Amino acid sequence: MSGIIGNNVARASGVIAAAGGGTNTPAFLVTNVGTQSMTRHAVEKVTWDTETYDTDGAFASDKFTVPVGGAGKYFFWATLSTNNNGGPNTTYMYKNGASLFYTYGTSYWPTWNFIELSADLAEADYIEIYNKNTEPSPTAQAGSWFGGFKLID
User: Which run of H or E residues covers position 106?
Assistant: First the structure.
């Protein structure tokens, strides 16, 4: 049997179509092709040298800023690879210059810290990634990435 029942259900498949639709934008994904030198025992902002995509031009080299008309709930994630010889390594997600959340790791070369967060943001709020490493000559490694998108209301 085929056909439409009501507005959203097809009889043959039982698939329910989204009534509201929408897109998950603004959205961005940035990575590091090169390395970033850091200061031992200092909490430092990570900069990103390669933009894979940025749907609304809301990402600069070091932060995502909610554009005009973009207030709402967002999901962000980052994976940061750092050189490490067994010392602690902490990756932070900041909102408007203050730490919201962090992840902590200890391992041998390299350390991969993964962090993700959902946040309700207003226009002009911004999200940044910071790192603290106890390695004698710490660096944020190539292959690290940071991304996010607005959740559909």
Answer: strand 98-108
Bridge partners of 94?
A: 99, 128
Q: Is 36 helix (H, G, I), strand (E, B) or coil?
A: strand
∠ Cα 62 66 70 (to 5°): 155
Pair 130, 94: CB distance under 8 Å: yes
| Three-state SS annotation for 112-141 | EEEEEEEEEECCCCEEEEEEEECCCCCEEC
Mean pLDDT by runs of 10 across the 153 residues of the chain is 44 47 89 86 92 96 95 95 74 94 72 89 96 80 92 87
Alpha-carbon distance 142 to 69, whole Å?
33
Tokens of 93: 């997600």
H or E, element range at 78: strand 72-82
Helix (H, G, I), strand (E, B) or coil at 81: strand
What does pTM read for this prediction?
0.80
What SS3 class is residue 45?
strand
